[in-house]
Amino acid sequence: MEQTLISTAKEDRFAGLPPGGAQFRVSGIGEDQCGLASYNRRDYYKISLILGGSSELLYASRGITIDRPALVLTTPIIPYAWEARDGLPRGYFCLFANQFLYTPDRAESLQEANLFKVGADPVYFIDDQQITYLESIFQRMRMEANSEYLYKYDIIRSQLNLIIHEAIKMQPSVAYFNPPNAAARIARLFLDLLERQFPVDAPSSTILFKKAGDFASQLSVHVNHLNAAVQEVTGKSTTTHINERILGEARSLLHYTDRSVAEIAYSLGFEYPSYFNNFIKKHTGSTPLALRKIL
Length: 295
Description:
Layout: E1 24-28, E2 44-52, E3 55-58, E4 63-66, E5 70-74, E6 81-84, E7 90-97, H1 98-101, E8 123-125, H2 128-145, H3 152-169, E9 176-177, H4 182-196, H5 212-219, H6 223-234, H7 238-256, H8 261-267, H9 273-284, H10 288-294
Antiparallel strand pairs: 1-7, 2-5, 2-7, 3-4, 3-6, 4-9, 5-8
């Protein structure tokens, strides 16, 4: 049975946390208190310390068997599935937003960090000494998160950095395999990555992936491989899926918001409003302004 650790029901509740808490969460795997209420997979990075159990981390075209203690780093911009072989793994995990780790006085971004880049090895198998060290850090983060100390998130941020630096020092040792039903998996992860971009909540937000090649790069597959898999599994082309989702979001923004056509065009990845106008006219026969009146 598939167990996607970043999207369990227990992790979909989050309420009443103080400033900083809305950007960070730490827990034991499978515990009731690991829930996040405004948890959105596209916003949170995840580090898991796996201490026992057997599972598989599956990406579009590769899989990694985790059958011994490991540190696992995953990013919200690369879809994956986590399948447990014998129930939930034992260990800890933490979720955190980019802005939790990189405060305004620091220019770096996790999306640019080597540990979280597309194609980076996400699994670091660890020895007994590293197990003791990393488990102690997770336990300390849990202790601080439950404390009333005013600056506890500054301490947690330092501890999180210790984990990341430990991963930087380690050389990943993973054996990849080609998962079965690769076409179905690629198609599902493509649709997952497409959907993660929506809704476009803020006028200043913009979707990052608008072409088949953008998605292929994120999934680390050749664009022709992606197109063939999506067509085979869904009966529609990659471009059709992208256009339909963008069109659906455009209709929603035109109907439910008072954003200008230019703002909507930018949010949906169009460099110029005229490109957006042409897109809407091609797919609906109306201009955005005319469509707004109809809706």
